């Protein structure tokens, strides 16, 4: 199973939101990372057929998604940043409605809804109107609707927005469980959403792909370049001009512990193991 993006560009008048993107997605979890405005949402909307590329094609198993039509749509699940619903619909009614639109038969639909409501801790509010739910609960309803048809491809935009810490943990665990047989694409600007579950990473900025590959390989590419040191508070402005400081902590007494990326470290620095946040901040030019 393969989803292939072939030289795809999307132009909006004077704005080139996505520029000549080439990607090959296979089974596993793919983290699509980039700052706000990088083009992630536009790319995902093209992948689910909501937008047509200005140039290039998107293929699923060798066929253009435009030629596959509903056969392709039947195999994908999509959770946008904001999903629409009738404010008078209950959670259960909304999921049955979406299931009907997806052509799922009544028996299968009922079983999937029961299972998903239980999985995402929504059984107790299934008769409650969606409009009355908290932001986190609405997000969980959105995840349920995306998974109703048990899709081969799951595409999720900012998946954990509004979820608390425990909800985020459960959602990541769920994705890790299902990803062995699916293509799961998570678009986010929150590094922790994908740090421990993504098999592959894609870094996007200004409409272009700047890095892609296996997560561990990319992170290890900056091994030997990440350091920690304690410096004086008054030195911070100068150091920020010379080094990419990825984190810092006020130690008190005018001292600051910094974590930074460099080829030539400061004196008395300690070499540390790189993580995804280090890699991300080392590559995204717009992050200072």
UniProtKB/TrEMBL annotation:
GO terms for molecular function: ATP binding; ATP hydrolysis activity. Pfam families: ABC_tran (PF00005). SMART domains: AAA. It comes from the Bacteria. CDD domains: ABC_drug_resistance_like (cd03264). Residues 3-231 form the ABC transporter domain. InterPro entries: AAA+_ATPase (IPR003593), ABC_transporter-like_ATP-bd (IPR003439), ABC_transporter-like_CS (IPR017871), P-loop_NTPase (IPR027417). Belongs to the ABC transporter superfamily. This is ABC-type multidrug transport system ATPase subunit.
């Amino acid at each position: 199973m393969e989803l292939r993006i072939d030289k795809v560009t999307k132009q909006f008048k004077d704005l080139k939101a996505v520029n000549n993107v080439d990607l090959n997605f296979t089974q596993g979890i793919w983290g699509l990372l980039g700052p706000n405005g990088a083009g992630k949402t536009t790319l995902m909307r093209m992948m689910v057929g909501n937008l047509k590329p200005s140039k290039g094609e998107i293929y699923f198993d060798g066929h253009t998604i435009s030629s596959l039509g509903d056969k392709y749509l039947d195999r994908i699940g999509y959770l946008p940043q904001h999903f629409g619903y009738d404010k008078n619909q209950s959670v259960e009614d909304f999921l049955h409605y979406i299931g009907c639109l997806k052509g799922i038969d009544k028996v299968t639909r009922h079983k999937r809804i029961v299972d998903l409501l239980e999985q995402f801790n929504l059984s107790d509010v299934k008769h409650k109107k969606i409009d009355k739910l908290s932001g986190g609960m609405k997000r969980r309803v959105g995840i349920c609707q995306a998974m109703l048809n048990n899709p081969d491809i799951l595409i999720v935009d900012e998946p954990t927005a509004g979820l608390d810490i425990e909800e985020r943990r459960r959602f990541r665990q769920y994705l890790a469980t299902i990803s062995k047989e699916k293509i799961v694409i998570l678009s986010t600007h929150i590094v922790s959403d994908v740090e421990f579950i993504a098999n592959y990473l894609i870094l996007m900025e200004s409409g272009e792909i700047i890095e892609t590959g296996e997560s561990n390989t990319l992170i290890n590419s900056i091994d030997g370049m990440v350091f920690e040191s304690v410096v004086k508070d008054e030195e911070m402005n100068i150091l920020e001009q010379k080094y990419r400081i990825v984190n810092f902590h006020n130690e008190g007494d005018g001292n600051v512990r910094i974590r930074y990326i460099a080829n030539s470290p400061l004196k008395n620095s300690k070499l540390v193991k790189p993580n995804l946040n280090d890699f991300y901040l080392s590559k995204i030019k717009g992050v200072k």
